[in-house]
Amino acid sequence: MKTMTTEEIINLLDANEDLNIIDVREDFEVENGMIPGAINIPLGSIPEKVNELDKSKEYILVCKGGVRSANACEYLESQGFNVVNLEGGMMSYDGELEFK
């Protein structure tokens, strides 16, 4: 499984890279802020939302600490997706936040 550090994602965001970030935390968790541009698909909803994702894109998955997003990465990889797990999740991320 490919991984990315929070420093790497912050550098990509600062460079205005076009990123596809999926936050797999629950609704009550994302109320505390998300990485700018991320979409929220709670982990339990990934299988039913998989048809809305594009296999030609790379997705960066994030959760609170990195475990749920690793599980989501494993599932999506098994479905043929190109995914990256954000190491340490939101507990390690100290960049800008977006509130929905």
The poorly predicted ranges are none
Based on CA atoms alone, the radius of gyration comes out at: 12 Å
Strand order of the largest sheet: 1-5-4-2-3
Form type: globular
The secondary-structure class comes to alpha/beta
Can you name the CATH architecture? Answer: 3-Layer(aba) Sandwich
Number of domains: 1
Work out the helicity level: 25-40%
SSE order: EHEHEHEHEH
Strand content: 15-25%
Mean pLDDT: 97
Any idea of the CATH class?
A: Alpha Beta
Largest sheet: 5 strands, parallel
CATH superfamily: Rhodanese-like domain
Number of helices: 5
Compute the number of strand runs.
5
Distance between the termini: 29 Å
CATH topology: Oxidized Rhodanese, domain 1
Keywords: Transferase
Pfam family, one: Rhodanese
Protein name: Rhodanese-related sulfurtransferase
Domain Rhodanese: 15-99
Q: How would you characterize the overall build of this protein?
A:
With 100 residues, the protein is an alpha/beta fold. It has a single domain (2-92), classed as Rhodanese-like domain (Oxidized Rhodanese, domain 1, 3-Layer(aba) Sandwich). The chain has five helices and five strands. It has helices spanning 6-14, 27-30, 46-49, 67-78, 89-92; strands at residues 2-4, 21-23, 39-40, 58-62, 82-86. The chain has a five-stranded parallel beta sheet with strand order 1-5-4-2-3. Helix 4 links the parallel strand 4 (58-62) and strand 5 (82-86). The longest helix is centred in the C-terminal third of the chain and has 12 residues, at 67-78.
